[in-house]
Amino acid sequence: MTSTRQTVRTHWVALRALLVFTAVLGLAYPLTITVIAQIGLPAQANGSLVRNADGDVVGSALMGQSFTDASGAPLPEWFQSRPSAAGDGYDGGASSGSNFGPENEDLIAAIEERKAAAAELEGVDENDVPADAVTASASGLDPHISPEYALLQVGRVADARGLDEADVRALVEDHIQAPDLGYLGAPTVNVLALNLALAEMGD
Known about the structure:
about 200 residues, mainly alpha, 7 helices
């Protein structure tokens, strides 16, 4: 009898602990954090969405996207993002890098192919193509490119849009973001933000 009573008591204590922790950690905590985020950082809490001049959502400042046609060919009038190994490219449901080692034959072949394509697109020597133009990020979703890669594309974009090259170069320089806290990482350019500013520039 005593053993049965002890078992029931133990299970009742466990059930009460489960209910309390479910209420606190499963309901109260997420709700509190959600309210704080919506009040303090609403843009970030809702995905750092980016809107165009018409107010339409065109993407997120935290997620890259491709600027290509239906066949996957780069559109010359837009700045191009770096390659993506996430699904068919910038697939949020398949975030990953290729996970190939530096001596993997498939990776080496892909880099050589991308380098040749980028050099032809920009009209430069293959040795002038920066690394981020031919390699994917670890997540496959990086929305940034290096200032070097952005500036490499200035001539082609200006020519495709009939704009003054100096004006397009100035636009890129205005969109160079300093490293986080001034020293973490390297300077970057958000491709979506740059292309939105480019679209407004052409209006």
